[in-house]
Amino acid sequence: MSQLSYARYGKDNIRLYKVDKNDRTGVHTVTEQTVCSLLEGDIETSYTKADNSVVVATDTQKQTTYILAKQNPISTPEHFAAILGNHYIETYPHIHAAHIKIIQHRWTRMNIDGKPHPHSFFRDGEEIRVVEAVAREGEGITIRSKIEKLLVLKSTGSAFYGFHRDEYTQLPETWDRILSTEVEAGWKWKLFKNVAEVKAVDFDAAWQKARDITLKTFATDDSASVQATMYKMCDQILAAVPLVEVVDYALPNKHYFEIDLSWHKGLKNTGKDATVFAPQSNPNGLIQCTVTRKPKSKL
Ligand SMILES: O=c1[nH]c(=O)c2[nH]c(=O)[nH]c2[nH]1
């Protein structure tokens, strides 16, 4: 009558905090993450025949996360995701794939009286670092790294003109507008054969490069459109990180509308006189792209 066509299960929203204490200097380093692990394999009978013998309980997955976090460094989420995913496919013969998602939250060290404080941190924005890893038996480990919720704005240096016009078009062209977006940027790595290959990669340096490129390009590009600016970001990340195969961005265009105040004593607040704007919550533009390397010419 029916058949199971998709099955994956595990623990979501495992909150994890780890402190590394340098006993010599007294300096602490903290990492906070939210982990999701989902397993795939020969688990059909748990759904179709109430056979729990094949179930690695979701509570076991939570305990495993804590134990492996104790036994391994976690501050590079790509490394930890690979270790965790690989653990499931190596430990349980009937588990063939593990999907690990790690959200890393920001704890930035405080500067007190001009000096980095040894054990106090603050949340400097809602930006998160995200890793989605899949360890698949017989294939290897795929990893996608992401920046999410990085809110940016520039008050000039952005234009939008020359776009298609027809009887549905009302938007005026602009040579100077506010540009604001919440960056979601992802980069997919080449397939890794095993955890050792993953451990050899400096993912923190790549994340720093992707973030620097995003911010610098956003700030300095004389933007013709969100589309043109985001493509430049993708292109530079591919050039800067050779092991990355695919870069993608999703950028909402968070509009700031001019307000005509001329009705009040002729106040000038449009065009070059515009200083007070109305930020819009919705609707917003949403511009997405995925960029890969051109295949090498055979000539
Ligand atoms: O950078 C932009 N790209 C668009 O596709 C678009 N569409 C729109 O109304 N404003 C903008 N801005």
Structure description:
- This protein has 299 residues and is of the alpha+beta class.
- It has a domain at 1-138: Urate Oxidase, CATH 3.10.270.
- The protein has 6 helices and 12 strands.
- The chain has an 8-stranded antiparallel β-sheet. It has a two-stranded antiparallel sheet with strand order 4-5.
- α5 runs antiparallel to α6.
- The N and C termini lie far apart (56 Å).
- Residues 160, 171, 225-227, 253, 285, 287 line the site of uric acid.
- Keywords: Oxidoreductase, Peroxisome, Purine metabolism.
- Its main location: other.
- Pathway: Purine metabolism; urate degradation; (S)-allantoin from urate: step 1/3.
CATH architecture of the domain at 1-138: Roll
Distance between the termini: 56 Å
At the first level of CATH, the class of the domain at 1-138 is Alpha Beta
Main pleated sheet: 8 strands, antiparallel
Order of helices and strands: EEHHHEEEEEEHHHEEEE
Measured by DSSP, the beta-strand proportion falls in 35-45%
Helical content class: 10-25%
Properties at a glance:
Urate Oxidase; 299 residues; alpha+beta; two-stranded antiparallel ribbon; binds uric acid; 37% strand; globular
Concise overview:
The protein has 299 residues and is an alpha+beta fold. The protein has helices spanning 44-48, 58-71, 77-91, 195-199, 203-220, 226-240, and strands spanning 9-21, 28-41, 95-105, 108-112, 115-122, 128-136, 140-154, 179-189, 244-253, 256-258, 277-279, 285-292. It is built from six helices and twelve strands.
Structural topology:
Layout: E1 9-21, E2 28-41, H1 44-48, H2 58-71, H3 77-91, E3 95-105, E4 108-112, E5 115-122, E6 128-136, E7 140-154, E8 179-189, H4 195-199, H5 203-220, H6 226-240, E9 244-253, E10 256-258, E11 277-279, E12 285-292
Antiparallel strand pairs: 1-2, 2-3, 3-6, 4-5, 6-7, 7-8, 8-9, 9-12, 10-11
Helix pairs in contact: 5-6
The structure holds uric acid.
Subcellular location: Peroxisome
Function: Catalyzes the oxidation of uric acid to 5-hydroxyisourate, which is further processed to form (S)-allantoin.
Main location: other
